Structure formats: C-alpha cells, structure tokens
Amino acid sequence: MISVEKYLSILPDSSGYVQESKASIVSKVDSGELILGQNGAHWTREMGNYGEMRTSTEFKEQGYVELTTAPMSLTSKIGPGIDHIFYKDDKYIVVDSKSGPGAHLGMTKSGPQLSDAWIDPRLDKSVGKDVADIIREKMLFENDKVFRMVSKVDHGEKTHHCRIRKADCRG
Questions:
Q1: How many CB atoms lie within 10 A of CB 39?
Q2: Strand partners, 150
Q3: pLDDT (average), residues 147-157
Q4: Which of 167, 55, 169 lies closest to 114 in space, CA to CA?
C-alpha cells in the first residue's frame, strides 16, 4: 500500500505549474478578461470546468492538497466521476462541483451522488487503489475523517461550499 505522502509526491501537478495555470484562468474569468462561451465554445462545458478549476484553486489556497486532477483547460471534456478529493491534516474531502442555475446532486445507477454507494466504485479510478483503500478504511472506521461537500459556482462567479451529511446526499 502506498502512503498518501508518497502519492502526493508523484502527482502530475506537484510542481505547482498546472495549478498556477488553473489559478490564472480563474483570475481571468473573475476579472472579466476571459468570458465563458466565446469563440463558439460550449458554455456549459466551460462553466463546468471553470467551476472545477475555481474549487481546486480555492482549496489549494487553504492548504489542501488535491489528490484528483481538475480540468486542465476550459474546454477539457467533462467526464463522470468524483470531481475532487482534497487532503489535509489526515482528513479527506470528497467534492462534487456544480455550476449554473439549478445545478444539484443527482441520482445515478449506483445511488445518490456523494453517497457511499456512489463514492466507493469511483475511488480507484480517481486516486488509485492504494489511496482509495485508505479512504475506504477511514469511511468505515473513522468517518469523522472523510467529508462530503458540494461546491457550487453561481452566475455571479461566487462559490458556495456546502458540507453535506452522509445520510442526506441530495445537496
């Protein structure tokens, strides 16, 4: 089993370079220098990726380490799965980013988003089996070390972080 510290040392953005460009994109959107949906781009994809980049940037500014990889650009293909897992002080935060009006956690074939039934099958793909097993163990035996949160970016580009209870994963 690999330690979280070892895992962190091999992340693609451990140098800070990728994060710096995400922060730059967020700053340009926030300042109005970059407008989403221009040049024929799909607004929903750009807004979703911006929301994920903004969430990533805000958590990193608070000293969290991101164990997953947020989109590298505003036009990156959005895929299903866990948007973010952050780590700090032996605690994990599993985050689903939502963007735009009416965005909310949904029901999937494996259960409500951010429920144990939804998180568990997605962990290996998100952080690799070794770290996923550490998180699973904490979910089972130290559930005060794993939190679930919805990060919602509204039209005013404000981010709202809402921690949700394990029993109520509707957001």
A1: 6
A2: 96, 162
A3: 77
A4: 169
Secondary structure (3-state) at 139: helix
Higher pLDDT, 31 or 61: 61
Number of Cβ within a 10 Å radius of residue 53: 26
pLDDT score of 67: 93
What is the Cα–Cα distance from 81 to 123, expressed in whole angstroms?
9
- Number of residues in the chain: 171
Structure-derived torsion over alpha carbons of residues 164, 166, 169, 171, reported in degrees to the nearest 10: 0
Tens-place pLDDT, residues 38-52: 655 577 778 888 888
Residues 6+ apart with CB under 8 A from 134: 1, 4
Phi and psi based region of residue 77 (left: phi greater than 0; alpha: psi -120 to 50; beta: remaining) = beta
Q: What is the C-alpha to C-alpha distance for residues 131 and 91, in angstroms, rounded to an integer?
A: 13
